[in-house]
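TA notes, week 10

Several of you asked for a full example with nothing omitted. So below is the full record: structure tokens for the whole chain, then the designed sequence directly under it. When grading your own attempts, check the secondary structure regions first.
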């Protein structure tokens, strides 16, 4: 393992952040974030775009050359090759993420299962693709998970459907185990999350006996998830397997609060951002204290949390590239974090979504809306791009 690099972190170093972007790509990113910064376009864009796609207007080319190109690797694994190499040139890994969602048919779930397995096969033996990922709603019906979470009795057909979902989940995780390629199970809405957590825990019991193959995701914008993480760790330690943790802040805040209000129960979301930040950073401290039996991925675009974890690694005298610690960001966002962390010797990987354009549109719209809803996110991205354009003397 490498010795600790001495260079201090500087998340404002745009030369490193955008080293892998050509002048043309940098200018394209500038105009994209200028457009995204318009709340009007972000809100009106999804229904208009879906309408155009549904009636067959030829706008796929425009989408593919703009939003899709910036936030996605391609429509197929093969099309992601350029992005994989581009990230690797900056010592950042790729997390291939087949981002098709919202489907309902068993034939689609079977195909998605096989496609996720193809990402594992592609990652095998390639250090540029250190981790893989999938969503349980990609391989099973949302309504079924919802019924399970509500503790409602399944009929015979639903029991069969659930067995197939579990088989797909185990098939994916077993292939990951056989190929020694870690796989993360993404978190989703609270009203289906208990079932996802149970599936993830079952997979960890099976496949994390010696090292971490399966990771579950903890959304720390929920006020109960830090306690869950600690409880899960105690169970994992007692049962003798490595706990795989991906911690994120969360992606469904507005939807969660609205549903809680409509149904008249307390919101599962933290009371404010300060509480979320506190629990997120506390989870980093906890995982570092138990680094021998917890492997974790710090999924964040928050600069302060990245600094907290970097400082903890130094305080505990843990190598920056310890296999149990990864930083992760989304493709097209926070390059100043990803590439400056990797340049300082930390393990870093980017989520690289891919899939047919029309099927990936919900993901793209969430990214655009996320950039406008998170205070300062778009202006921060734009400011860094402008700074690099000035450094390169680009107009």
């Amino acid at each position: 393992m490498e010795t600790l690099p001495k260079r201090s972190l500087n998340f404002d170093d745009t030369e490193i952040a955008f080293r892998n972007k050509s002048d043309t790509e940098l200018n394209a990113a500038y105009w994209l974030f200028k457009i995204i910064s318009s709340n009007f376009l972000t809100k009106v864009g999804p229904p208009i775009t879906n309408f155009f796609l549904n009636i067959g207007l030829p706008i796929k080319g425009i989408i593919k050359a703009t939003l899709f190109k910036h936030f996605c690797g391609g429509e197929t694994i093969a099309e992601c090759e350029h992005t994989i190499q581009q990230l690797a040139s900056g010592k950042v890994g790729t997390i291939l993420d087949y981002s098709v969602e919202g489907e309902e048919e068993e034939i689609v779930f079977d195909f998605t299962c096989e496609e996720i397995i193809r990402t594992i096969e592609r990652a095998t033996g390639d250090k540029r693709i250190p981790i893989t990922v999938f969503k349980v709603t990609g391989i099973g019906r949302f309504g079924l998970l919802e019924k399970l979470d509500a503790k409602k009795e399944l009929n015979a057909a639903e029991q069969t459907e659930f067995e197939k979902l579990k088989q797909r989940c185990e098939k994916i995780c077993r292939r990951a185990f056989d190929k020694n390629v870690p796989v993360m199970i993404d978190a989703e809405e609270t009203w289906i999350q208990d079932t996802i957590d149970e599936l993830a825990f079952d997979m960890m019991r099976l496949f994390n006996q010696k090292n971490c193959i399966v990771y579950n995701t903890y959304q720390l914008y929920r006020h109960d998830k830090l306690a869950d993480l600690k409880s899960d760790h105690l169970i994992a330690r007692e049962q003798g397997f490595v706990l795989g943790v991906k911690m994120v802040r969360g992606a469904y805040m507005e939807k969660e609060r609205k549903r809680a209000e409509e149904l008249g129960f307390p919101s599962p979301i933290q009371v404010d951002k300060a509480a979320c930040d506190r629990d997120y950073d506390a989870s980093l401290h906890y995982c570092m204290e138990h680094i021998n039996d917890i492997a974790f991925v710090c999924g964040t675009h928050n600069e302060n949390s990245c600094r907290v974890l970097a400082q903890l690694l130094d305080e505990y005298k843990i190598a920056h590239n310890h296999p149990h610690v990864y930083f992760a960001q989304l493709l097209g966002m926070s390059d100043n974090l990803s590439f400056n962390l990797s340049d300082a010797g930390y393990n870093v990987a980017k989520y690289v979504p891919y899939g047919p354009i029309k099927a990936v549109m919900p993901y793209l719209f969430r990214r655009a809306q996320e950039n406008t809803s998170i205070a300062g996110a778009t202006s921060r991205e734009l400011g860094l791009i402008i700074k690099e354009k000035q450094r390169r003397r680009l107009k």
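Residues 184 and 371 are 24 Å apart (CA to CA). Use that as a sanity check on your answer.
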